[in-house]
Amino acid sequence: MFPTLNSRGDTPLLPFSLPFFNIKGDLILLEHFSVFAKIIKVGDVVTAYSVQNPRHIVCKRVLGLEGDTIKVPWSSTNGPARTVKVPAGHVWLQGDNTLNSTDSRHYGPVPYALVNGKAFLKIWPLKEAGWVSSHVPALL
Question: N or C, which terminus of the chain has less Cβ within 10 Å?
Fold first, then answer.
């Protein structure tokens, strides 16, 4: 198991959760064993092929696993409040920057097969280097 930065250089990585990760210069290490072994848990930060454009990779936090019930609050972009049950073989992904994130609130549960890595270490910029937390921020 080798960590990767972006194993496919042709695949752009889309924004996740400013100020935690910045698309313009932050580097994170990913591991793939957790995805392969299906031991991803709520709170993990993962990368996945975009539901909207499979040529792009998104970086989001897992907020629900198959069988979980997710309450989506009303918002001007997401519409009325609703409750969603995550179907088998899917995960619920959301960006930490809820005001500026296109995620499962917009396109629904994501097939687990699209998840391709788990972020575990931020390595750049050096002053912000450290382990990627699985703590779910209170705003989510």
Answer: N
